[in-house]
Design brief:
Blueprint (H helix, E strand, L loop, with lengths): L3 E8 L2 E8 L2 E5 L6 H10 L6 E3 L12 E3 L32 E4 L11 E5 L5 E8 L2 E5 L6 H10 L5 E5 L11 E4 L16 E2 L12 E4 L10 H9 L1 H5 L15 H31 L1
Parallel strand pairs: 3-5, 9-11
Antiparallel strand pairs: 1-2, 2-3, 2-6, 4-6, 7-8, 8-9, 8-13, 10-13, 11-12
Length: 287
């Protein structure tokens, strides 16, 4: 089963602890919970290495199941799922006063609020669009997904402009939550998080509708460089195909490193040939 962790009614690094299990968000009970467990939650969410248990219903009461109780973490644990606890139970505690509230206060070295990636394509610039939110990677529903949305994703990834905006899980179905639907970018935004969208958790969409993109660029290859132009000229389909890119089945597919090696080897041979010619001419002149 897919598991996820989040803090609610506060911010990304403070709130009431909830876990996603068996298709439903629920609270975590605080019986026998130590400071180390609170710190582990903060580490799990990328919210630093310090934190504490808040008191007095600071972040409100939950309304769903109470999935876990008697969680015991140690200093070696960096994820809540590594810690010992009682078995999963929708009624782990009957008193909402026992729900866990945590505030993370440490050095937040790596908060993953705006992480974006594409998965399942041929390179880092094509594939199923996934975003990191509330401690988990999730997909985007393809409702209203278009080239303007894809342009923002491609630009944010440093992959140029969009060649196409794909729907219906063109690069395979994702797993976990579906975080967004009905994204409406103008195409000029610097980040996908600047676009209007509707938050979602798989209620009105399933992974058969995962959104995807094909971008015109390739990370690590600057299209503005002479070498980049040469590669894109010699192998245009490799970088600009409008169709979803699938794993190659033939023996004629070259990866980008192989292409670069071929070109650099050719250039080296040309340089050596020129040098050899100059040496021969110099010897002829000496005679």
């Amino acid at each position: 089963d897919f598991l996820a962790l989040r803090l609610v009614n506060g911010n990304d690094c403070a709130g009431r602890v909830e876990v996603f299990y068996n298709g439903t968000w629920g609270s975590v009970c605080s019986n026998h919970m130590s400071q180390l467990t609170a710190v582990t939650v903060c580490k799990h969410l990328g919210c630093g290495d310090e934190g504490g248990i808040a008191t007095g219903f600071k972040y409100g009461r939950g309304s769903g199941p109470t999935w876990l109780d008697h969680i015991e973490c140690t200093e070696q644990h960096s994820s809540l799922w590594q810690c010992q606890s009682d078995p999963w139970d929708p009624q782990s505690c009957n008193n909402r006063a026992e729900e866990t509230h945590i505030t993370c206060t440490g050095n937040q070295k790596c908060i993953h609020r705006e992480k974006l990636r594409v998965i399942g394509g041929e390179n880092e610039c094509s594939g199923r669009v996934e975003i990191w939110h509330q401690g988990s990677w999730g997909t985007i529903c393809d409702d209203a997904w278009d080239v303007a949305d894809a342009n923002v994703v491609c630009r944010q990834l440093g992959c140029g402009s969009a060649v196409s905006a794909l729907s219906e899980a063109a690069f395979g179905e994702g797993t976990g939550p579906i975080w967004l639907e009905k994204v409406h970018c103008k195409g000029t935004e610097l980040s996908l998080w600047d676009c209007p969208a509707k938050s979602l958790f798989g209620k009105n969409c399933d992974h058969k509708e995962d959104a995807a993109v094909n971008c015109s660029g390739y990370k690590g290859l600057q299209r503005s460089s002479p070498l980049g132009h040469l590669i894109l000229y010699l192998f245009p389909l490799h970088f600009h195909s409008d169709r979803p890119r699938r794993p190659a089945t033939g023996s004629t597919r070259f990866s980008v490193p192989v292409i670069l090696c071929i070109i650099l080897g050719t250039l080296l041979c040309l340089v050596l040939a020129i040098l050899a010619g100059q040496i021969q001419r110099a010897r002829a002149q000496q005679r």
